Amino acid sequence: xxxxxxxxxxxxxxxxxxxxxxxxxxxxxxxxxxxxxxxxxxxxxxxxxxxxxxxxxxxxxxxxxxxxxxxxxxxxxxxxxxxxxxxxxxxxxxxxxxxxxxxxxxxxxxxxxxxxxxxxxxxxxxxxxxxxxxxxxxxxxxxxxxxxxxxxxxxxxxxxxxxx
Amino acid sequence: xxxxxxxxxxxxxxxxxxxxxxxxxxxxxxxxxxxxxxxxxxxxxxxxxxxxxxxxxxxxxxxxxxxxxxxxxxxxxxxxxxxxxxxxxxxxxxxxxxxxxxxxxxxxxxxxxxxxxxxxxxxxxxxxxxxxxxxxxxxxxxxxxxxxxxxxxxxxxxxxxxxx
Lengths: 164, 164
Ligand SMILES: C[S@@+](CC[C@H](N)C(=O)[O-])C[C@H]1O[C@@H](n2cnc3c(N)ncnc32)[C@H](O)[C@@H]1O
Ligand code: NI
Ligand code: NI
Description:
Chain A is an alpha/beta fold.
């Protein structure tokens, strides 16, 4: 497996998981949260496929392709370690879908960060809402969901907040 | 088609074209040239799949993932507009495979650059050698090769120097 192979698997899994999660939550009205804008490719995908739900983007420093830069009033600027707790006050547990792709090249650091942000993400998700992540997350109250066809085990993770 | 869809198509096409070109030129002994290191994903792929041929990387400023950074003596540092003409003196027309992924986000600029570097690349290719590019190239003496299965039309281009 080359780094190109792994990267393709990750991108393909991300798309499969997002498409699945968008469809599964299509009847929910709550906002969609994109944690980490990066180049803006998954944001562009969300924007294209999600209908009737606002999409908020959490990002420390916007550096996306101009073709997929979110409007200013939909961008929540700052470190997610601060902006996620603030978002609980603003949105409560209403998010229908949260996508996180916050990791970098250091797998150990990514895991550490996933442990740190998991408890900051969970309180934002509505009952029945889904969380899609490129890293394994550490949730108490959310349950892991089997991956859809086309996604590669270990390259993407899906979690659901039970409805009751 | 979202930017994520296009990106996946490009990566998948790149891999399909590289695998095809590596196999087609497997019996040739001449060096492989990677033009544009970037993150180093396609370099990592070449390094893994090419056997018995040296791989030289042409790059302006090395900023790859440490896991796929080429050795210093295999890196030809500088702007390809200067290093390619110099390489003709050093290598002659011996390259068995040249891969170019030099483009950025601006399609018009990429096309302009492809026109500029095409005549600098052609003199390096051995008879029967293949050139794989993310951009359409402008060659007089090379012929375009149909894409292999798995590659998406327009996302990748393959050219061959005829043997006679
Ligand atoms: C899209 S990236 C290559 C990505 C790579 N194929 C990968 O899989 O990670 C393009 C690279 O080409 C390099 N580049 C662009 N123009 C160049 C030039 N005129 N001379 C040398 N390098 C150049 C850039 O610095 C950048 O690293
Ligand atoms: Ni992503
Ligand atoms: Ni590339």
